[in-house]
């Protein structure tokens, strides 16, 4: 069976408990330690998910599902981009494994192969930063978040 071309999936093991990892998707102060430079989050179904990555890149969506410590689902798009806000959906599943967490990311409804590739590059950049900070480290400044408003 062929993989769905509008879906990307990635997994990463994080040396932290699911409760800790979960907070990096629901607490704006924690989120910007690994992705973006400002965030407005209201982690409840229908609540806003907005992350200012840089001057040109602002993610906007809303939370669809928030199941403490195991699952977060939010819509995703760009305020000023070819993928309008709410166009795609990001699912984060957290599974405890041997004192750590297996994070499974599924990003659905991306409109083109180029969009899948671009978002895969983005998640490949950001998930290791999440793993570093959730595990107690410091990923350092995000080179993609350069520039200020």
Q: What tags apply to this protein structure?
A:
single chain, 21% helix, 149 residues, alpha+beta
**Measured distance between first and last alpha carbons:** 46 Å
Average pLDDT rating: 93
Secondary structure class reads: alpha+beta
CATH topology: Alpha-D-Glucose-1,6-Bisphosphate, Chain A, domain 4
Order of helical and strand elements: EHHEEEEEEH
State the helix count. 3
* Name of the top-level CATH class: Alpha Beta
Q: Helix share of residues?
A: 10-25%
Number of strands: 7
By CATH's scheme, which homologous superfamily applies?
START domain
Poorly predicted regions are none
Task: Please provide a written account of the structure.
The chain has a 7-stranded antiparallel β-sheet with strand order 1-7-6-5-4-3-2. The protein contains 3 helices and 7 strands; from the N terminus they run βααββββββα. The model has no long low-confidence stretch (mean pLDDT about 95). The protein starts with 7 loop residues before the first strand and ends in a 15-residue tail after the last helix. The relative contact order is 0.24. It has one domain: 2-Layer Sandwich (Alpha-D-Glucose-1,6-Bisphosphate, Chain A, domain 4), CATH 3.30.530. By secondary structure, it is α+β, with helices and mostly antiparallel strands.
């Amino acid at each position: 069976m062929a993989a769905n071309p509008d879906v990307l999936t990635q997994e990463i093991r994080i040396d932290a408990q699911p409760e800790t990892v979960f907070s990096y998707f629901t607490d704006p102060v924690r989120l910007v330690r690994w992705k973006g430079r400002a965030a407005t989050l209201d982690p409840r179904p229908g609540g806003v998910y907005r992350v200012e990555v840089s001057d040109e890149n602002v993610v906007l969506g809303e939370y669809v599902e928030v199941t403490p410590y195991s699952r977060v689902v939010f819509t995703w798009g760009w305020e000023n981009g070819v993928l309008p806000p709410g166009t795609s959906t990001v699912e984060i599943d957290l599974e405890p494994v041997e004192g750590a967490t297996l994070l499974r990311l599924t990003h659905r409804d991306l409109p083109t192969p180029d969009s899948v590739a671009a978002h895969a590059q983005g998640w490949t950049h950001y998930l290791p930063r999440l793993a570093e900070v959730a595990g107690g480290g410091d990923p350092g400044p995000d080179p993609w978040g350069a520039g200020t408003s």
